[in-house]
Amino acid sequence: MAGRGLLSRIAAKDITRTRTENDVESIIEHLRGLLNTRQGECPAAMDFGVVDFTDLMHTFPEAIQTLQRSIRATILQYEPRLKNVIVQHVRDDEVLVLKFQITAQLASKTAKGAVRLETQLRAGGQISVR
């Protein structure tokens, strides 16, 4: 009968919640590295990372859609803990900043739920993930 009491069930929920939070933090850290790597920089996987935005600047504003598709494709390819990934451009008045919202579902059996993250591409090419 161990594990069936109220305290055991409460403890199990706390462990699951903590595990989910840890999974999400791990995913965010991985996405930071993934989205700040440009395609062609990783010799073992030349498509690892996103397209280099500096190569797209001359096609602005169409470059936004290209970068949006690249972010989504990269996440689908290299972050298996996420599924049903949607990447949307978020309009902002801030000059020289592109914002994207990433919405996805956790694909793990132990961690369930939705994740919503915000990314910002600044003039220097760095992408932040929150």
Account of the protein in words:
There is one protein chain. The chain is of the alpha+beta class and 130 residues long. The chain has a single domain (6-129), classed as Roll (Nuclear Transport Factor 2, Chain: A), CATH 3.10.450.40. Helix content is 39%, strand content 22%. It is built from three helices and four strands; from the N terminus they run H-H-H-E-E-E-E. The chain has helices at 6-35, 53-56, 62-78, and strands spanning 82-90, 98-106, 114-121, 127-129. A four-stranded antiparallel β-sheet has the order 1-2-3-4, covered by helices on one side. A hairpin with a 5-residue loop joins strand 3 and strand 4. The longest helix is centred in the first third of the chain and has 30 residues, at 6-35. The radius of gyration is 18 Å and the shape is elongated. The mean pLDDT is 84.
* Tally of helical runs: 3
Q: Could you tell me the radius of gyration in angstroms? A: 18 Å
Instruction: Please state how the strands of the largest beta sheet are arranged side by side.
Output: 1-2-3-4
CATH topology: Nuclear Transport Factor 2, Chain: A
Which architecture per CATH?
Roll
Low confidence ranges: none
Structural class: alpha+beta
The CATH top-level class label: Alpha Beta
Strand content: 15-25%
Mean pLDDT: 84
Largest sheet: 4 strands, antiparallel
Order of secondary-structure elements: HHHEEEE
How far is the N terminus from the C terminus? Answer: 42 Å
Q: Give the CA-based shape.
A: elongated
- Percent helix, as a range, is 25-40%
Please report the total strand number as a whole number. Answer: 4
What count of structural domains? 1
